[in-house]
Amino acid sequence: MYQAHFQLAANPFSPSSASGFIYPSAQLEEVLAHFGYALEMEEAFFLLTGEVGTGKTTAVQALLENRLRNEPVAVLSHTTLTPRELLDEIARRFGLETKEREPKPALIYRLEQFFASAAREGHRAVLFLDEAHLLTPAVLEEVRLLSNLRCEGRSPLLICLVGQPELARRLQRPHLRQLRQRIAVRYAFKPLTRDETRNYLAHRLQAAGSPEASEVFVPEAADAIYESTRGVPREINVLAGQAMLNAYLEGARQVVRAHVVSTRSDYGFEGLGGATDGRETPDLPFLAMADAPPRDS
Question: Residue 230 in contact with residue 223, Cβ under 8 Å?
Fold first, then answer.
């Protein structure tokens, strides 16, 4: 509704955006580096955690576009599966033919042969398990067993567990210690800082075609958005979009603090980010590859 008013070619705060809308934050670069290390050093697992809306799915999208152009990749987001259903779904996502009533050992053998074939061509297969905090202990054990597959003594498969912080806490349980010990590379997403929130708003507006992307939200309005969302991107999108609509209804060319405040008061915006101080404390004493340093807000 407000796109023409602000001279935009697209919705700047759509929940599903093209790659040009992905904000190149320092955290995103760190995720790419951690993942690249896990891939090249033939680690079996990469653990990516973060609160709801902090950008985990966006990071996976960036990995697919920037790091995985030639590798066989499977992405699973439906994680409420039985162990056997998981194996069937993994096979389908890697493009393997599914066979009715196929014995489990036969399916695992076909997966092993598929991974080995990719390895002989110089590639590692990559499996993303999104919403991994919903996986049952039995399924997590099946995932661990998959990581035992070998091709000429090397690991042909990188398993990326992506989920909310409770995933890391679950992995502390004694019965999951074998899986926990295999996770040597991890990254915990944190919300954006105040400055990053301002830059995020400008980046999304610029990607949407705004001729004055850095001027649409005055500093006080950007600060109000940060204070309400604590830097959680998904919530920033909701609040910023509504604030722009408020500005449009008033005929204003800039979004000011009042437009943000009225969204909170008149429309009942309730962000999840306000429940945190913008930090995520470590959940696990993993042997980690270069955990991110504390970030100022």
Answer: no
